[in-house]
Amino acid sequence: MIANRLFRGPTVFVEGPYMNDRTAYAWIQAGEYEGKRTFGGKERENIFREYADQVAEGVIERFRTLSGRSTAFTNYSP
Description:
mainly alpha, 2 strands, 8% strand, extended
């Protein structure tokens, strides 16, 4: 991952299928912006905000599902 050392600032690594998708590439290239913009006929927040929101939602949901479980040690894997 030499790109992390070559470029000052955030480096976004894109998988091949997305890199070759005009809509996804345009959305990535738009960078950070306020509000929503239209890409491929779909209104989207900036990619960084959308990604951060999805990660936060996943973490919250994970801990929400754990709250009803016992924290006592058992010999059984969850």
